[in-house]
Model the fold of this input.
Amino acid sequence: MLLMAAVAQVRVCSRISLVCLLLGSWALLSVCSGTPASASASEANKSDSSRSVSRNKSVKAFPVVTVDFGHVRSPFVVALWILLASVLKLGFHFLPKVSTIVPESCVLVCVGLIVGGLLKAVGETPPILKADVFFFYLLPPIILDAGYFLPTRPFSENLGTILSFAVLGTLWNAAFVGLLLFAVCQIQGSGLQHITLLPNLLFGSIISAVDPVAVLAVFEEIHINELLHILVFGESLLNDAVTVVLYHLLEEYASDPEIGAKEIILGILSFFVVALGGIFVGIFYGLIAAFTSRFTSRIRVIEPLFVFLYSYMAYLCSEIFHLSGIMALISCGVIMRPYVEANISHKSHTTIKYFLKMWSSVSETLIFIFLGVSTLAGQHEWNWIFISCTVMFCLIGRVLGVLGLTLILNRFRIVKLTPKDQFIISYGGLRGAIAFSLGYLLRESFPRTLFLTAIITVIFFTVFVQGMTIRPLVELLAVKKKQDSKRSINEEIHTQFLDHLLTGIEDVCGHYGHHHWKDKLNRFNKKYVKKCLISGERSKEPQLIAFYHKMEMKNAIEMVVSGGLPKLPSSVSIQHVQRKDTLTERLLPTLTKEREEEVRKILRENLQKTRQRLRSYNRHTLIADPYEDQWNQILLKRQRLRSLDPRGSTYLTVPTAGRGSPPEQKPAESDATYFEPRDPTSDLPSITVDLASPFSSESVETQNKGAVPGEDKGIVFSAKNPTNDENGSPNQRMQRFVSDPGPDNKPNDHFQS
Amino acid sequence: MGSTPSLPAWEIRNLANTTGFTSEQIEILHRRFLHLTDGKTTMSKDCFDNIPDLDCNPIKSRIVNAFFDGRNLGLQTSGTVDEITFENFLTTLSFFQHMDDNHTKEDLEYYKNEKLQFLFRMYDTNGDGKITLEELREIVDELLSKTSNAEKTSSSIADAAMLEAANICVGQMIAKNPAKEQAINFWKAKPLCPGTDSLAGGKYELAS
Done:
């Protein structure tokens, strides 16, 4: 009933609804956690009574209603937490003012704090974010999502920069923070003398790693340009190897009083093993996944499962050998993606995308909430000097590291990193839950509580202060934002052309540069790898054509979904555009809403009648669902049809291509699903019905005047002859959309069904 | 390498002034030039056949023609020449130089425009200052030339591309302005190559 009250008031005071939700959930949680005691008691009673029943055979009523919570406890609590997290995410978006000022992560941490506080007030111990749960269940979806959808082009172009930030930057940060903290610890009177050098260095290495979860959460909302995004994000992903190595190394040797050259060499060696091993494990599983997806054409339903499972196996396998699981996941996703996407169906692709987004979103929410809860759960040891120095050194170390590295890197980069960029990169170095979990895993021999407190403080500082202020700072500094443009076919053509051009020039100069190797890799890929990993015809499909098909499909789906005029007609014949000098203003006409509704109503009434009278159709062509798997067939059919009339005459291009008449820019792709052309060799257009598109106002008017929809003749369209200049070209008359597939002898005037 | 004649210093300085390369770059390129021409002082089109990697390039002919295109070499004639000297070779390659920030803003704009003009001339094979649909189709055909079954799709791809360009510059499209303006506008509007292409570590770069 709390929830219902909340819903009732949601418009007026959504904050109250949030609080009500929170209270309700807290009540449930306390009930859940409270009942095990009573549940076990009732169970004990029941077992006693059942035993007594069997012994004494006394008459006992069959319990109609029993409460047996202990049975369901763990899945119930887990599901409840996830539900709570998701509902809170919903509620967050209902508060527009809050969502613009405060990033989502901050709100979630606050909520976690509140829930933890409530639980503590009740007397229960709030659950702590266990490292196992975090590393095995909460982190992989986020990383897989990031890796699978990683924009490979900017990533590979900036790989050198990203690697140097990840490796050298993290090492510098760890050393800087660790050494300076050690110096601080030596200060008399700070009460910290017991912390020697190695624990300090270990602490430094834990705290210095930029966290991918936090970076994603904050950077997603500020929409900065692609370069900065990929730099910071790539760094946060790749520094996992460094963190893992440093952590294990220092933990091992922390008890050892001396570290010699041998240990350092072993450490460097182990870094390469960890990083490269993780990558190889990922590549191995990625290739197997791509190979498996080649054979899934019979059972499309389990295709997404292969993607998820192989990636998860890559992660777990690398964790067996203490290799870098994050790098395994990233490389698995990156390798797998081009081949898997060529093999799987469109629906599977959508499924994978949405499942990954869903899981990563839920994981992120849970991580932040648990961060808040765990803050109140553990014990804390507060030492002003240590903690304030930690925060300061983290900030200063990051800034110095970025500045220094950029100075060196700018000598090798073409697009230099401006000071604005450097500021954003250093400001975007957020710490998050990975640092917390690593700190949690420390053995007791370290001053664990102090470290945990310090880690939590740094995390809170970066998430709250830096997270909240980065958006106004981005606005203030006028940093370039992400350009929200779809990748167009022109871009694709020009990019490929430029790639080939630069490779050619490199060859002429005899220089083996970046382009040369990339070209060689592409050719190797095309010649050998694609043949193994992609099934059927798609293996030979060049990238341009694949891109083109994808774009067409996207346009088509957009058109069907929006039910209206396309924004970008994909391939209407150019001749129409060039001819219609007077109609340029009408290139993209707009219909008023009422007109559209009217048109749709008329169409629906008329077309429903005529559907039964069609003489030739088959199941596939009448289905108004362009998502069917026969999509490719239809595209091919249409292309074949276009090829039959090489003049590209106006007659054929309008309805056969189903692209609609250019002046009105009818939606294209959905047309072709409705009819197979009956007489493809004839000069006459095939007539298509377009259920999804509104007609132009002119043709509807004509139809209204001239046609007799009431009669059982279906739609009759007469050619528009009022204004000759517009209808001079014959194709204008061809835009009649009727239901009968058979073309009449007089293609010019009437089409009757 | 020891027997190749090197350029006299004054010539190197001359070339450095006109093309903007440094002296070491000019020397390296001169050695390469001589390697390609087998010691002769002028280069003809079949010298480019010596480069094995270039054969796999789908737009090889366009690249080779770009070196011999009169417009690139600053000649008044718009035809192609048959032989080019080392200076012409350098002129063409100088289009791929990196413009560092020492130049003024107008200079940078000018160089950017020059590079775009060079690219445009590569697309515009008949030299009339316009990129027509046919020329676009040829380009797409070449890009897809290594595959077998692409004839029909290439024309529709070219159509789609032209229509997109039309949509970007609505109103200018109707054959009044040469397509060059529109194409250049288009290239400026879209982020083509993010500017991080580099040919040699610091030697030749094309930034757009």
Q: What stands out?
A: The mean pLDDT of chain A is 72. Residues 252 and 618 of chain A are 71 Å apart (CA to CA).
